[in-house]
Amino acid sequence: MATESNLQMMKLVNNMFTSDIKMKGDTLHIPDISNLTANDKSASTDVSFETITEGKTDLTIDNHKYAAFKVEDIVKVQSAYDLMSPYTEKAGYALAKAMDTSLLSLYSGLSQSVGSAGSAITDTNLLTAIQYLDDADAPGKDRSLVVKPSQMKAMLAIDKFVRADAVGYLAQMSPVVTGALQGGNVKTEFPKGYFGQIYGVGVYVTTNVVTTGSSPVSTHNLLFHKDAFIAAVQQDIRVQSDYNIRSLATEVVADVLYGVAEYRDTFAVRILT
After folding, report:
1. What would the pLDDT profile of 223-254 be if each residue is shown by its tens digit?
2. Which residues contact 266 (CB under 8 A, 6 or more apart)?
3. Are 118 and 161 in contact (CB under 8 A)?
């Protein structure tokens, strides 16, 4: 059986708008809500009203992906295995990976970046990226770091992330928490691809992180709050099949209709390695 990447992004980003696009339409116009100003009230004076002139973010449902295969009768008859079920699952995986890749590819529109191509991830770059989110008032909750396995290896080579005197043990925890040490309790079960926490940020490892170029290869890891990116699925993964009498084969098509977009630019940082 072919191996599969740990797909992370759809569960880590803001997908609350899916219900708004389920029925009709191809674009969501999402208002950018700004803060109001607290003013001094003087006696015998009227209050002043702020005029609301919001910008918007457009989320366009413009990705219609499919995966298709057919199994000829001769293969079904001569095979000792049921091929339809595993290949139908593989079709679903192909579409899920396409959605994951679409979100990871949004790195290209980000204005904030640390690191350089071909270098290993560093503690300094992690702290700088976290500061960018702090400076933008991004909430501390729902932050994620998504990296290639090579960069997970690089982080494990950083002393302070693995030394017992730095990470603490059980109830004696520091901001640097990795592996099974979470909140003072030993945990043995984790979501696929989840490594642990560093500086309160959930760390996820996947081979699906985007790479570009060569000599050196640029790896576009991401640190972000969930509101940095938005995704909406208008049509969930649908599987349809039909029998083609001309080719004596069962044909199967799976498809999905979705859109992704950058929502809050300052809530995400590309960590280039």
Report:
1. 999 999 999 999 999 999 999 999 999 999 99
2. 111, 112, 132, 133, 135, 136, 138
3. no
Cα–Cα nearest to 13, from 263, 190, 210: 263
| Separate counts of helices (H) and strands (E) for the chain | 8, 17
CA dihedral 153→218→5→193, nearest 10 degrees, is 40
Residues, the chain, total? 273
Contacts by residues 31-40 (CB-CB < 8 Å, ≥ 24 positions apart):
31/55, 31/56, 32/56, 32/57
Confidence (pLDDT) at 179: 46
Q: How far is the C-alpha of 224 from the C-alpha of 173, rounded, in Å?
A: 24
Cα separation, 203 vs 181, whole angstroms: 13
| pLDDT one-digit tens code per residue, 181-194 | 344 444 445 567 78
Evaluated on CA atoms 182, 183, 188, 192, the torsion sign reads negative
Please state, as a whole number, how many other Cβ atoms lie within 10 Å of the Cβ of residue 125: 21
Buried/exposed code over 59-81 (b: 16+ C-beta within 10 A; e: otherwise): bebebebbbebbbeeeeeeeeee
pLDDT digits (tens, 9 = 90+) for 35-73: 888 999 999 999 998 888 778 889 999 999 999 999 888
Beta bridge partners of 185: 182
Looking up tokens 């609301």, which residue turns up?
52
Whole-angstrom distance, CA of residue 19 vs CA of residue 35: 26
